[in-house]
Amino acid sequence: MTFASVLEWLIKGLVWVLVLLGGFAYLTYYERRALARIQVRIGPNRAGPFGLLQPIADAIKLIFKEEFMPARADKLLFTLAPIITLTPALVITAVVPFGPEAANFPLFGRTITWYIADLNVGVLYIMSVASIAVYGIVLAGWSSNNKYAMLGGLRSTAQMLSYELALGLSFIAVILLANSTRLIDIVEAQTGMWFAVLQPVGMIIFLIATLAEVNRAPFDMPDAEQELTAGYHSEYGGMKFALLFMAEYDKMIAICIIAASLFFGGYREPWFLQGTLLSVDQTPLLGPVYLFLKVFILLFGMIWVRATLPRIRYDRLMAFGWKILLPLSLALVFLTAGGILLEETVNPWFRWGIPVVSLAAGWVAILGMYQTLRRKEHARA
Amino acid sequence: MDFTLILFFILAATAVATALGLLISRNAVYAALFLVLNLTCVAIFYLLLGAPFIAMAQVTVYAGAIMVLFLFVIMLLGAEKLPKGEVLPFQRPLAIGAAVILLAESGYLLFQRFRSAALLQNPGTVENSMDSLREMASLLFTDYLLPFEVTSVLLLVAMIGAIVLTKREKGEPA
């Protein structure tokens, strides 16, 4: 461990934080424009061409707003909570490779790689940072000395703990398929065949669970405006609010990057471009471009979901997490492991049994959901 | 001085400070947060010792899941402020006695090691690779299968117990 390598990490980390800062600003713009289009409006279009300067105007407004501290709030934690919320969102993508090894470039006599850290337990690192992420929100809710904020914080704790289990189990299916916990190996294992094809139900569980983890609609219970005013961030204003807001959007970006790497081939080209000039093997620098495009499309999916689905009720959210998602993801781990075992011992074609059987399991889960969670007509408990 | 050694001393100081903070703090939320920091310090110790899987499991399970539940319960019950005086009067002398015994034991072990040639030697570091994880898993399912299964049954029993305790009987008012 030399001084130069520490310096390299620092600079890379700083660049990545700045990228996430810009990504946050323009993700809000992207979301507002896309939501507006879906709702047949125009969206922000006054500041600059196509409203492109809107995020900067928002930032200036938030910087100059008054910092407000509620009476009898816990001052230390009230100040720390936005920082604790933001930090996991910034560090969680440290293990994700943004480009192939072939795209490494020399700079000042060092080989600069397209990842910040190459961790052998990369997936577990993502899992542990995700499990830390709940603290910021629950502390923000508690330290505000406000009942609504507190309720929002408690809701988010229960929700994130419940969906973390399904999330972790959907990771296991990917680890089994790639036979590694290292993100680079996982991405390289998807050359030509995305894990989204081999494990479609796992992909859907991952996306649902991450939506719940980052408290996005339709799982935005912690900041349900109608019930809890604004939940855990009701008492926040100015830059502290901006930090909480940035944490939410950076988490969206981070999980889209992770989803792209785990299920959609990361920086690898789509299968139909394999072997052509546009493949990552022949033009390595296209890797980050592919990853960016995948993240862009996945982010649109999240915005689309927000525009389409109403918020689900809290008891149903819990029932869905524990009674449907958890057993289904446990079954998927079992099915994937069984499929790989049969593939290795009996016939390679059993690999295709994995998606077929898991889709069947998903169908059973949907039937179960219909039986247990549907709205019973005129039902009174 | 080695970089890892500096890191170790900073971490050790943090671990001791957070442990003391946990004991002294009269606010249950702060005490829980000190414990989270302490557990994270221990996780980084595992990393320094070349056991990344254990470190990540430590963070995920203890700092991430168990302590969040602790905080949840503390906040839900509104039990932040701990009472001033002693709750269990016999606790303090008992704790002091146990602490003295522990200190004496660790002091004895330290002196033993100081006398021997292997003075605070680097422990045999495990290869930091995917293979170490694979090796650990295969050990867990071969040599240590019985303890592993017993632990899982124990956890299952605890889980069923929790469900039984909270389950409402039919006809019982909410």
Features:
heterodimer; A: 381 residues; B: 174 residues; mainly alpha; Four Helix Bundle (Hemerythrin (Met), subunit A); 2 domains; extended
Structure write-up:
The complex is a heterodimer of chains A (381) and B (174). Chain A has 14 helices and two strands, in the order αααββααααααααααα. Chain A has one domain (3-313). In chain A, strand 1 and strand 2 (110-112) form a beta hairpin. The termini of chain A are far apart. Chain A is mostly helical and 381 residues long. Chain A has a two-stranded antiparallel sheet with strand order 1-2. Chain A is 65% helix and 2% strand. The longest helix of chain A has 36 residues, at 3-38. Chain A has helices at 3-38, 54-63, 75-91, 122-132, 134-143, 147-178, 183-189, 195-198, 200-213, 225-228, 238-263, 286-308, 314-345, 353-373; strands spanning 105-107, 110-112. Chain B has 174 residues and is mainly α. Chain B folds into two domains: 1-83, NADH-ubiquinone/plastoquinone oxidoreductase chain 6, subunit NuoJ (Four Helix Bundle (Hemerythrin (Met), subunit A)); 129-169. Helix content of chain B is 74%, strand content 0%. Chain B contains six helices and no strands. Chain B has helices at 3-24, 28-48, 52-77, 91-115, 130-141, 145-166. The longest helix of chain B is centred in the middle third of the chain and has 26 residues, at 52-77. Chain B is extended. Chain B starts with a helix and ends in an 8-residue tail after the last helix. The model of chain B has no long low-confidence stretch (mean pLDDT 80). Classes of the chains: A mainly alpha (381), B mainly alpha (174). Chain A binds chain B through residues 1, 74, 77, 119-121, 124-125, 127-128, 130-132, 134-135, 138-139, 142, 150, 153-154, 157-158, 160-161, 164, 168, 180-182, 185, and chain B through 3-4, 29, 33, 36, 52-53, 56-57, 59-60, 63-65, 68-69, 71-72, 75-76, 128-130, 133.
